[in-house]
Each structure stands twice: as C-alpha cells, then as structure tokens.
Amino acid sequence: MATLEKIRSHSKVLFAFIAIALLSFVVGDALTNSSNIFFGSRNQIGKVEGNELSAEAFQKQISVLTDVYKSSGQTQISEGDIRDAAWNEFVQSSVLKSETDKLGLAVTALELKESTLGENIHPILKQIPAFQNENRQFDRNKLLNLLARMDNEGEENLKNYWMFWEGQISNSILLEKYTALAANAMAAPKAEVAFLNTLNSKGAKLLIASKPYRELNDSLFTPSKVALDKKYAENKERYKTKGYRVVKTIVFDVVPSKADSEQIAEKVTNAADYLKIVKDDELQYYVSQESDTEFPFNGAYRTANDIEYSFRDFAFSAKKDSVSPVILDGGYYKTAKVLSDIELRSDSVKINAILVGGTSLEGARATTDSLIGVLKAGADFATVSSKHSMHPQLRQNGGDWGWIREGQFGLDTFDNAVFKTKVGDYAKIETNQGIYLIKVTDKTAPVKKVRLAVISNRIVSGGQTFAAAYEKANSFIAKNNTKEKFLNAADAENLIVRDLGPLTENQSRSYIENVRPIVRWAFNSKLNEVCKKPFDSNDKFLVCFVSEIVEEGYVPASSENVSSQIESMVRQDMKADQLMSELANVTDLVSVSSKIDTVSVNFSYPYIAGYGTEPAVVSSAVKAEANSVVAPIKGENGVYAIRVLEVQDTPVSEEMGARKAQDDVRGFVNRMILRSLVENADMVDNRSTHY
What we know:
Chitinase A, domain 3; five-stranded antiparallel β-sheet; Triger factor/SurA peptide-binding fold; 5 domains; alpha+beta
C-alpha cells in the first residue's frame, strides 16, 4: 500500500506511460552507473537526469550495438544510425532508471536468472535469431552453446553480446514492474466508462454518397493571405521545432568507367591464375585477402544451398582443383576453385563436451583419455562433466552443447574432428584453454557437400574516375558560388536540385551517406551560402547551399514546407465550402453521386471501410433519425451525404465496458509515456560537438 501511495505521489510519472513494451535498452555500467566517473565537458557526450555519458562509454556502446546488429543480419545499417540508436537508448534507459529509483524498484539476480536460464524464458530471448532453430523457435541449446564459449580467450565479443541482451531483459522486467504499478494506480472514471459503453454498444447501417475534394482542380482555388495566416495561427503548435537547416544539393555521381571495370576483371583473372597453383596452407589466407565479400572463405564443406547460385553447377560438376572462368555477376567479377571431391556429410551434429584442463598438455591428454575410458565403461556424461569440466556453463548443463552446423566456427580442426566422428564416438580437440572432449550424440542425414573457394571483387571506381568527378563538382562550385548562379546553372545544365533536410543539429541519417559533414557545415553557415568544396558521400560528390535556416521555436509560415501544408489545408477548406453549398438542400443521395455504398459503422470508432477515417460522418450518424438524409457533412476527404437505414444496439456489459475503458486508458498511456518522459527530461546533448 505504501508503494502504491508513493506512485500516486508522482503524478508526472503517471500521466502517460506504458508504451515502452518494445523499448530497446542499452545496458552496461558505462551507461547506467557512471557516477563514479568524472567527465570533462569536452569528453561528455551528454547528460540525462544526472546520468552522464562519456565519449569513451558512448563509443563502447556503439561497438557493442554494431556487433548486435551484425549478428542479427543487419549488415547495412550505418554508423550514424547506430550512434542514434545508442543515444536514444541511453536517454530512454536513463529516464526509466531515474523514475524507478524514486519508487525503489529493482530486478534481482534470481529474477534475471529465471528469465534467462530458468523455465520461464523471457520473450526477448526467444526472439533473438542467434538462439533460434531453423524453424525460428527458441533453442535452449544454442543459448547454452554461446554461454559455454563466451569465457574462452578471444571471445570477448560474445560476452559483450550476451551482456547486452541480459541487460535488455533486466530492463524489460523492470519496466513490467513499473507499468504494473502504474496501471493499478490508474482507473477510468465511471462517467467515462458509461459513455464508452454507450458508444461501443451502438452502431448504424447507412447509405453514403460523397464528393471527394480530389475531384476539384486545385488551380480553381487561390487562398488569400488572411486565410493562410489564420490557418497557420490555428495550427502553430504543430510546427514547434528545436531548429533545423534545409540544404539544396546537386549530386555528381562517381560511375565506374570502362577502364575501372577492365582493371577489376584483370585483377580477378590474375587471382584465378594464382588459385591454380596456390599451396593448400596458403589458400585460406589468400582467398580472404583477395576477396571483398563480407564473409571470407573458411574452408568448410557446403551444400548446394550454401553456395552462391552462380557457382552451384560448377561446384558439383567440376573436378577437384578446377578453377572457374572469371564471370561478371551483379556488379562483381568472380572466380571459384573446387577444393575437394563431393562427399556425403551431415550438415549438423549434436554434441556433448567437457573442457579438460591440467598443469601441462601431457597431463590434460592423459586426463582426457582416462575420462573417455570411464565414459565408454558406462559412466553418465552429465555427471562426469559436472565433476571434471573446466568450463562453468558446460559443467552446469551437463556438457550439452546442442547442435553445431558445419563451418559455424570457421575452424577446420573442429569440423574435421567432429563431423568425421560417428554417433556415440568421441573426439578430442586441443585448444589454448585446454582439451575439449566431445561426444557426438546425433547427426543429420548425410547430404552432398563440397569445399569451394570464391574470390569476388566489386567493380568500383578508380582514383582517376573519382578525381574527374571531384573536379567536375569543384568546377561547378567555382563558377556558381551564389544561390542565383547555382540555380541558374542547374537549370541550364539540366541538373536535378534536391532538398536535403530538414536537418537537425545531431542528424546522422539521410538518403545520402556521410551526412554529418554537411550538417556541421550547414549549422555554421549563413542563409544562401554555397559550400566551398564538394562533400564526399561514398560514390557521390555533393554541392550545396543553405536554403533555409530555422532556429528553435516555431517554423515560420514562410517556410517552404509549412507554407505548402497551410496552403493545402486552406485550399481544402475552400473546396469544402463550395461542395457544402452545392449539397445544402440535398434530399436524396442519387443527386450527390452515382456511387452509393452501404456501410456499417460503430459509434466508438471513426473509421469507415472504403472511405478512411471520417469522424464527422460517424458523429452525424449518431444523431441522425432513421431513413432521413443528412447532408452536407464536411469530412476529412470530401463532403458527404448519408441516410441511416437502421440503428444497431448491442448492449455491452458493465464489466466488459469497464475492462475496455481501462484498456483504452492503458493504451493511451502506452503511446504517450516515453515521449512525455523524454520531452520533460533534464537533458544535455553534446553530440554535435563530437560527430
């Protein structure tokens, strides 16, 4: 009861708040427990509710998030996007921690363990691809496999990966407690429940005819300045802003030349020639160095489905040591070498493992052989593992490592040892941590597999091509260093002028790559100022001028984007006035439109199938008498006439109505809380001074 009273005392917290259910949190002492670190202003990325974020901590979180995104298959996400995600999550987690600390809420170690390793696995964990089987179902063995490996030397990334997800789960549990307390402290007023019950229980079947605004030509309606000013004043709060810049830009693409293409083709041709003679012990390094593919060659046997389509036929028809002709495939020149005969091999194996240690390698070998003897004599593997395994996770779960896919670890020694071992037999793998004693407990059915090395090089522009494109863009700036010259030259040369923005001071995302230099320049430039040199955006050069400067406050009515919106709204009002006048004395729907539909509406919901959200139409139906025509009705998308055919009344029980009303309250809070807390947070954002 005391806790409930404490919650009620924090009205700010309870105003709007449950929508964080899908909130992502970045976890780590560097973010949430920075009170022991002294930050200088130059080194501080920001501060939220007293929680400071140093540049070093921020960079660490960016690194962790990068690994998380990559492991989830999101390889195309930009560094700017990751920075934004790291900052937003820092803000969100800081706000949540600040509020929950006031309430004395926390997550115990036992709660966290139960949600990650217990019987009640948290939904977040179940949705992580790394812990799912081929059917996208949670696979506990895959989780245990990761936990068993993360303390190994050289596996720091795995540990950071797990700590990230463990932190997310911890914060999710904390959020669940927070929202549960808030929900219990809030209730829909009885009068509101009764009103909602009435709306939910009633509806109508009606005929509807419309005159859509889009059927009237915009050119026939010219808004007056008085009307525009009035509409802007009515909607001014919609245009509140923290400030931004708009940049006009011309893009000069860097397109690979014929010479560039020929150069890449020659490079891959030379690589193909060397593949014919390269020594086996040099092959993996050579292929990895010469190919620009994201996942370099690791020597594993692969099925046809694992081999890119261009080389499938070649891989399973050519003889061992054959090298393919160089091919052009989707902007890449490629070649491949068959490294083995076709073999029937399992694609995955299920294993148990014990990590055997010792004071010496010879001692570990002797212990391993002794344990194999004990196991072959009938000893229980889980019991032996719990007593002798040096790895805590393997010791805890009885040595169960789960299913392993060939090539998963990129280690020939592992694959050769495990995948050649029969079910029920044992393999030994020596590592710098000790010796892994592995028992193969199951295998998938054998399939045809082959080893294939692929060298792939993307056709990219060479230095001369970049230099030519840069010179073209730079020459444009030199000749057109004012807004007027810029636009005139663009028109004369048929160059497309695009809007870049609105750009906020910390913005890192746009339809172009590497937008940060442009943002920094724009915020340090005057209105209509042309850039002094082209901006580099991967395979593009951009020339720009600042076309609009809006400081914190309200976007002025003169702003290009705002003025067009306001003009559109006033023009629609003018169309509505005309159509309302035309339908003022309508007594039948046929005179309105040849298209008359029969629709059903619920008085609690403004949506009409085929017409969109039209609250004015639904509210008119509420008040209409049966079989009477109601017109004109000014709607969102047109002017309407309706005739109610019948009023439908399906009483809703008080209990159900109260439950729905409470759900509506929670839903509203869910949608609004995070925005509310963040907007009202005590926050300092210094990102623009660092990036």
